[in-house]
Protein 1
Amino acid sequence: MKKVTNVVIAGLGGQGVIKASDILCEAVFHCGFEVKKSEVHGMSQRGGSVCSDIRFGEQVFSPMVPPGEADFLLVLAPDQVEVNRHQLRPGGVLLTPDLVDPAKLANRKSFNVALLGTLSNHLDIPAQAWDKALQACFPEKLLEVNRQAFELGKQVPAK
Amino acid sequence: MNSTERQLLSGDEAIALACLHAGVGLGAGYPGTPSTEILEYFSTIGGKAQWSPNEKVALEVAIGAAFGGARALATMKHVGLNVAADPLFTVAYTGVSGGLVIVSADDPGMASSQNEQDNRRYAVAAGLPMLEPSDSQEAYDFTLAAYEISERWQIPVLLRVTTRVCHTQTPVRPRASVPAPKPAQFLRDVKSRVMIPAYARIAHKRLREKLSEIAVWNQSSALNTVVEGGKKLGIIASGVAYMHAREALPDASFLKLGLTHPLPMDQIEKFIHSVERCVVLEEGDPYLVDSIRAQSLDVESKPEMFRFGELNVDRVRRILAGDISPEPVKPPGKPPQLCEGCSHRVVFEALRDMDCIVAGDIGCYTLGVLPPFSAMDTCVCMGASITAGLGLRHVLPPEQAKRVVSVIGDSTFVHSGITGLVEMIYNPPPTGHVVIILDNGTTAMTGHQEHAGTGRKLEHSATGKVIYEDLARSMGIQNIHTTGLGKDSAEFAELLKQCLGNGKLNLIIARRPCILVAKYIREYEKCTALQEVRPT
């Protein structure tokens, strides 16, 4: 079977986990991949743990990343790192909130997009597709601040 | 002509798009995870969609539309179909003129529900054809197929989806054109539509004949597909379970069932005989496996432990390996909680501090059960706070009965609480009772939908509004208190204490807009003030 890329984005309700996964999903969709994005709505909106699975490749079947098979785990809240670590495959890339200094953001709400910028260094998705995705996911007045946040995250070197 | 460009849609959105393309004249429902986005998206893209006070009403409205020859849609979560079960069973008898599709969005694993009932059982019990899509493309295609089946056999169709189909975004390629419905028109057909026993006896036989015909048609229907693989292992699956299985078992052969009631038994038998080992993989109840075994066909099923919760790739592997060892326990995440500044907090602090026996209900405020409040003692179904509270009041010794309080949200009250108030007036407990409506002006839990008590329609335009105080007064409830729930919790506590002590029937309306939507509500109200449209 053709290789599928598995990304898990985790955090707390209100942090923009779903938004970040929307942007990633949009970007890979524009690249022509088969993509599936799955999350659980509902109770999690009330400040609880939120988690979104994005899978893409030539052919994707299950919408959920099997436990221990995430290639990338992006966590927006420090206290959610340990509870989600089991999702990462051995040798998978963990991207934690300490990679980005929120003080450098024009708007702290765009922290999710900044962390997505750090992820972008690991994925073979052209800058153009990312920007198209940002345009699709934000209204005009929030676009620029999120573009800046994305660039800030991108400056974090991929280990 | 529709654009056939690939779109990224959730299953819910794909159903809505199909309804738009099918020319559905009316969609009605009640919000409920994971079904809510169907009607919201249908409205956004230009369909006529409306929230009803509850699922029974929504289905009946849709039935009326379909009797009138329009294509109609009713959406709800799995437990909503319990509420709508009364019309469901009989509309199967009456049949319809325009296509009628009823969406049941089930929640295996209970991401946001009070049970994980498997509504495939309803298709069997009521006698309805049932389709089970496994991704957004199928959600789109099967919705269109559902309307075709519904109109060909003049029968309502159940479209059964689950959380992972509803809330997973996958690419969808829409069809360029879909045959338009006939114009709505009333054609009198008393013997089909009026279910007096004499006509219903005929209608029941007619229903069974339709199902027999559909069963024959389904033997060769394109809704069920065979994926040829190795002959050692064959998998029979439907819905999202098929996707997990395809991934976990790349070398197997598959019979993927799309129309799962009535089942294509000849095709199933043929498939079973074509492989050495045949395993049925399904989420929830053993519906497929029991039906297949009832035909004396030999298939393997999942061990009982996999009835609980969702399936996934890992669980499919375990089922195939017969591994019933305990599964790894996921580290506990952070549980949800009432928002900081949520007006419900004041109420639950008072209930906790006064050691009330709290009959609770369905909504954000069910979180009052968790610390730091720990102030909820029962939660069964929509509306049961008022009625279960009354039952407790009737039987408990007076010193306990006096502490019983029923707590219900505004949307839930409109859904199923009004009949509870009628019961309270009709059969008042000796110690009186206290009902609190937590009125935050929205259906908060499911993502802030309007309802009949907000005075705004699904798309937030102004309409008639149910006033709870007037309603209660008209029923004869004398002690009605409306409080704005200021920051001062002592004020509310004092009111509650007074009500608990007076031995009468009390209704407290604790009214403060949900902090997450207060801003939007103010904007809607501004528009409303400009429009002043209120149908009389």
Protein 2
Amino acid sequence: MKAWITRERIAPEDVLRLVGDPGDGASVLFLGHVRDHNDGRPVTGLSYDAYAEMAGPLLAQIVAEAAETLGTHRIAAVHRIGDLDVGEVSVAIAVSSPHRAHAFEACRQVIDEIKRRLPVWKEEHYADGPARWLGQVPAGEDSGE
Amino acid sequence: MQSMRVHLLFFASYRDLAGTAEMELDVPDDATAATVVERLRARGGTLARLPASPVVAVNREYAALSTPLRAGDELAFLPPVAGG
């Protein structure tokens, strides 16, 4: 198992190389990319911020949980932070296991838990206006009690 | 009542509200994370827009707002996450 946060460009083949075993009949590689649009607006890039001291250990925990659930310890996951251009890889997850079902499922569990729990935030940069943090404080949240 | 100092961290949109990534704050020694939230919101300015019940982490783990704080604790304010 391996899990880390990086500011460096992710090389998917290097992540894939961290898993695999002669007894494994399947490898699954998931890549998350920076998309050129969101909510109908043209996106030119993303800046990822993270609570790195918490995100590193938590990503390792997410990977360990998937390993426990799916019974394969050959899982590698990396999340990139910093400034990314459209098309660049923001997250890579590789899993290998004797049969494909467990590999697909472990991969799915890791990305779902990253989305749900990992303290990482993205700021979208637009072609048509100022950047904004996704998941911002909703308007009206400050209406007091 | 004695006071103690805690270390606050703000990320992403909350950092914009606070105007800073980190802050030291003196609070009563029976303070919880919720006490700090109330103090910050009462300061006015953009920090008043911090949600009444934000997600927080104490010493790098998700924690309830009712969590009692100790001197030197690291209390982080986490906007809705958006990784992947």
